[in-house]
## 1
Amino acid sequence: MNILLISYYFYPELTPRAFRTFELVKELCDQNHSVKLLIPNKEQFKNKSFYHKNLMIQYLGDYNDTEIKAQSKNQSMFKKSLAKKSILKSLMPQLIITKIKSLIGSYNKHFHKVRNKKFIKLLFRNLIKDNSSYDLVLSIGLPIECQLGTALSIIRTKNFLSATCIADYGDPFSKQNNTFIGYQIVDHFIARVFDYVLVPTQNAKESFTTFKNENKIKIIPQAFDFSNNHIQSYIPNEITTFAFAGCFYKDLRNPSAFFNYLLNSNFKYKFIIYTITESQETLEIIEKYKDLFKDKLVIKYNIERDLLLSELSTMDFLLNFENTSKIHTPSKLIDYAITGRPICSLSTLKLETKIFEEFLDSNYTNETKINIEEYNIKKVTRDIIDIVNKTKQIKTSN
């Protein structure tokens, strides 16, 4: 098959969406599909590229985060300046001017997560000029810019009429802010344009039924290649050692209650946090506590996944902080399961200290169980290809 993938993240970035894209690209290429990947022209991609005989990577634009932030700031300043123009004051009643300012303020407040209009434009300009014939067009979000740029291209050109167009959502965009109808409009638009929407969990599927017919929403979880994992043989640690890998969020996955509980306890333990420096919320949360824990807490940044799996496999158990939203399922649980270590899941809304203390006593009765085969990249790619083949059969019969 000829496959076109669009993503904002890729190897060697250490994010769930980068893992998603990389694993899909690698496995599809290994299966001898011809894959074209569109990604932004980030510096880290140039420094550590990935090559495969069946892969062509096209880098879009001259790209960096500083430029994106500057562009967003300039656009905001332009809109504020426009609202203050004297000509508006002379031609419009003050009530209308106030309303315009309010709308601009609402846009800036709610759509700061769609600030990267440059990437949308780059995608659109590239895709409407792409006359190649594809069997599958797969846009991997978030960020939502991938879906928007691809969707606009699909409705603007006839280039993708023969392709099965799929939006791999991850988490629903509109669920980030239920009070703002603009997010729901974006989800409705994208769901209408694409043939299918992919979501990671059953809960996520249920949240999409207001946007898309249920039989067009497919559950395709995060997945990895299990064949080359560097797992160590477990030996109990002298001091109980547990770890968390991932990011924290103030509203979605905030560990403050657990941190305070640990600080007020008399347990002997070693707590290791693996995270990334790109997550500002994580850094802000950790900063409040890291000195208070002293030598009981170790923080490691930007560890490559192979090394991370190796180190996690040496822990006595692993910590998972459940998200406040049931729609979201941390992809770290898959990596945790690969290591074979017990998983201690704790709610950030209602902390169950009894469960944690059971784990400290090596009682893993309440460990979180994961059916690891559901997350095998070979199964996931097979499921995606099946969607394409079935769609072709339907189109042929019609």
## 2
Amino acid sequence: ETLALVEKARTAAAGGKLGVATIYYQRAAAQATGRLQHTIVAELEKLNRRPAVSRAAPVEGSAAERRTVAGARR
């Protein structure tokens, strides 16, 4: 069961679902012991060090222009 959770975590991470992967890794780490637990925790830490990627669509214009437009909408 623990190895199945690790595989689900790896699949989720590869698909960009980092939150889901984190949960699977945490569940696996809670069940594991010894060297396997150490390996799972290391993978989880590596996952947490990855930069987050925004899923928002890119917006044209500078940040200042976007703030001005957003402020005008309020």
## 3
Amino acid sequence: PSLLAVSAPLPPQEPSEAPPEEEPAAAVLQEEAEPDAPPPEWRIGSGPWDEDLVALRSSDGSSWERVGVLVEGASLPCACRFADGALLVAFQWFPFDQPEAFQRIAVIRSDDDGATWSEPTTAAFEGLPEDLGRPSGPCVVALPDGRLRMYFTAREGHGDAEDGAVRGGWLATWSAISDDGLTWTFEPGQRFGIEGLDVSDPTVVRFRGDWHYLAPIADRVGAAFHAVSRDGLAFTRWPEVEVRGQGPWLGSALAEAEHGEPDSFLRFYGTGRVGWSAISRDPRDWRVDGRVAWSQGDRPAVVALGDGSRLMIATVPGAQRRDADRALLEAMTGGPTVTMTANDRFLYVLRGETIYMYDASTLRFLRLKRLPPLKVGDDEDTAPAERSGEGGTDEDG
């Protein structure tokens, strides 16, 4: 398949008189990106920091073809189109080599309908209340006046603690406005929230003049909170919507045209073992469209391209988790270069210079550790725990 390329970073927000730096060569998106060397300590696995964003395209909206990796170490994508036709993708970013950007919302932009993309740039927020936690789970929509609005999840209470955690209050939806997709100005007031209940990761779509808000209900798979607003700011809660037998409402919605008529129906792309889609001509009632499915990628963000095709940005396991899956499979099938040991709590697999740790009862990947290179005189048969200087029977070793 054809591969996407990454173009130069987004331009600075203020002009500079310094001569422009030489533009870096375009980087090709890879199907199987090699992981960067992690820090020497145990690195936690099976989290959003070990997911990648991939691009898929569809000419008919039903069958999807993977194009390549778009961003490594990222999750919860959303996509929208500027009034000038440019595409913007916002997501939660986890770059281990940029601590200041870790777990922040970042954006990339394409000016050629998704053929090339800028490097990720963290979004700047202005006017956030001091007691509001860190924004996450972005959903960006284009407004009729050409600006962008980002709906995001945050916890009102004590804000960010020194260790980066957020304490107090309940997760709810807030918003910020932007002209360029880089700098976002907080809009006072809460867009949607339920006292005593966390609500997160919504999608918002404009349909027949109204803005429709949909957010997954944590304890009801296949169900979503639903609210409606005329101005996109003041939402009125409507009865929940549900599609039985499907996964959570983690994804995106598009207003679709039919027979040349805009806003004919809404389509939602959701998350499950197999990606699912539901359609609605009345946003209070949805039905599954079994013709639309895809086998790879969760939390899909879908946007229409200029030629009528569709671009999907979805989340897949990152390189670290793919390596862990391969190591466990080789250990289970008796791979000659893999060693496995276990206690009543954890399973350890040594593959090359890496120890992978799994939950012994569920085989869920927990974390990995790179071993230091053997020094001259070291016994190659030394046990992994001895070589690493760590114990091999507790969670931290």
